[in-house]
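pls ignore typos typing on phone
magnesium ion + seq
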Amino acid sequence: MSGLGGLPPGTACGTAIDNGPLPQIKGLMFDVDGTLLLSDRSLGGYQLLSGAAEVLTALRERNFPFVLLTNGSNYPPAEQAAKLRGSGLPVADAQMITPSSVAAEHMARRGIRRALVLGTRGVGHALAEAGIDTVYTGEPRAAEVDAVYVGWHPQCGMKDIETAAQAIWSGARLFSASDVPFFATRQGRTIGYSFAIVGAIRRLTRAPVTVMGKPSLHALRFVARRLGVAMAHVGVVGDDPIVESLMARRGGATALAVTTGTTSRDEWLRQPQQRRPHRILTDLREVLTCACGQTAA
Ligand SMILES: [Mg+2]
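k done
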């Protein structure tokens, strides 16, 4: 008889590479690219990774709290959730988090009223929904803002960089969706646009940048609040040591590593302590054992 999500009874929670018992996991955060799916940049579609639909379905059936956090900022969260549902992943709108979700809350709390967005219209959507006046390069008074927010922006040009620099020289603070140089797709490594754009802006202005997506604690705190659990009880499932496991370690959460994205098992084993996962999963479905124990078998 098979157990939860098709798991054979007695399936372990991955390979332990950290001494000591696994902290109790009361809510799960899944990375998207390289963990649940690989996007196909040329076709604009998704290829689900093995076990992704089974795991999310099993968690939903058990009412076990989970969210998805992508560093991709091109789509508003609800639109992204709908695309994933169309690919077969049971993800409610409220379970989909992007760096723009984090940025909208962070900026609204800090009294930021107007922001220059370097990104697609999707990047600024969550900010506008939170009541922040969003402007884009070329619009009137685009450099007269409290903040510059950089996200997915494949068409970024020098006018964008220049407007951002002018805004920062006039006192605006710099925020970025992501600080990750590349992520996993079916075509291999794909560059993170905001990483490159922020590099150019900082070369000009030397402004500090506040990262809203992974691996920032702003993102993990947001995730924990959305899950309704303490950060120490979040299980962070991801494929990238400098993204998910670094964030988990920073926040005292549990890092669960998959080998379906940017990082091989050998590479995981070589990670220094600050980004070493607690477990390496050979099959995503092992997450169910980590989170729900053996009771499902
Ligand atoms: Mg990833």
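The CA atoms of residues 42 and 187 lie 8 Å apart. Residues 31, 33-35, 183-184, 238-240, 261 surround magnesium ion (CB under 6 Å). more later
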